[in-house]
Amino acid sequence: MTIPTLKNLKKTVQKEVEPEPYAKFVVRPISILFTWLFVRTPISANQVTILQEILGVIGAILFGFGRFVLGSLFLQLGYILDCSDGEVARWKNQQSESGKFLDLIGHMIVIPFYYFGLGLGIFLETGQVLTLIAGFLAALFTIKTEKIISSTNSDLDIKRRGFIQSLFRYPDSMNVITILAIIDWFFKSNLLFYCIIIYGIGMTVGRMQQIYKTFYSIKN
Q1: For residues 7 and 61, what is the distance between their CA atoms, to the nearest angstrom?
Q2: SS3 assignment for the chain
Q3: pLDDT 10s per residue in the chain (220 long)?
Q4: What does residue 152 show for φ and ψ, rounded to 5 degrees?
Q5: What is the pTM of this model?
Q6: N or C terminus: which one in the chain shows less Cβ crowding within 10 Å?
Q7: Taking the domains of the chain in order of start, what are their residue ranges?
Q8: Which CATH class is domain 6-219?
Q9: Is 10 exposed, middle or buried (0-12, 13-18, 19+ CB in 10 A)?
Q10: How far apart are CA 10 and CA 5, in angstroms?
């Protein structure tokens, strides 16, 4: 049996091509350390996925209480485990459709939740109801309805998206929020206020366009 050293793990379980620069240069070098630990325990890949989702929900709840930097830390840690669960699955030969489904459900919970948590937290701090509405809209329209309408739709392939579009996608949106949260914390600025407004408008307009394109393609 191959010994799960860091070298063997990197060679065996990490993707040969990683399209996301942040994952490739920042997260994967960290996730492999967690993988190295997990493969030495009875913890399964699906349990790592569940842990990732719990951390993401905690981060979103912290957003709702106005703890934006701490919430971002939990979300970032959750993303690290989001990369690690697949590595654990490949090493332990636990790849399955149930694992993919669990990962998808986790994203459909955590991502909308942190948008709404952000809007709620800013609303409670500022009293600006517009941020609550924007958080709700961003949460609602980040749900990938076109995946429900058509499982063959590939319009959201990240490799086909431009820089601006990618900022509205996970994990880039999480990274934008993290950076702005840190800036707000250090400089007492108000960038997260404008951030959630932009996400509320952008996610609504973008998702409506995608729903229309998907409906039009099915109709024809």
Answers
A1: 37
A2: CCCCCHHHHHHHHCCCCCCCHHHHHHHHHHHHHHHHHHCCCCCCHHHHHHHHHHHHHHHHHHHHCCCHHHHHHHHHHHHHHHHHHHHHHHHHCCCCHHHHHHHHHHHHHHHHHHHHHHHHHHHHHHCCHHHHHHHHHHHHHCCCHHHHHCCCCCCCCHHHCCHHHHCCCCCHHHHHHHHHHHHHHHHCCCHHHHHHHHHHHHHHHHHHHHHHHHHHHHHC
A3: 577 889 899 988 987 778 888 999 999 999 999 999 999 999 999 999 999 999 999 999 999 999 999 999 999 999 999 999 999 999 999 999 999 999 999 999 999 999 999 999 999 999 999 999 999 999 999 886 444 444 444 443 434 467 888 899 999 999 999 999 999 999 999 999 999 999 999 999 988 888 888 888 876 6
A4: -95, 0
A5: 0.89
A6: N
A7: 6-219
A8: mainly alpha
A9: middle
A10: 9
Are 99 and 49 in contact by the 8 Å Cβ rule? The answer is yes
| Residue 196 in tokens | 């959630």
For residue 115, give both structure tokens.
Answer: 């948008």
Overall size of the chain counted in residues: 220
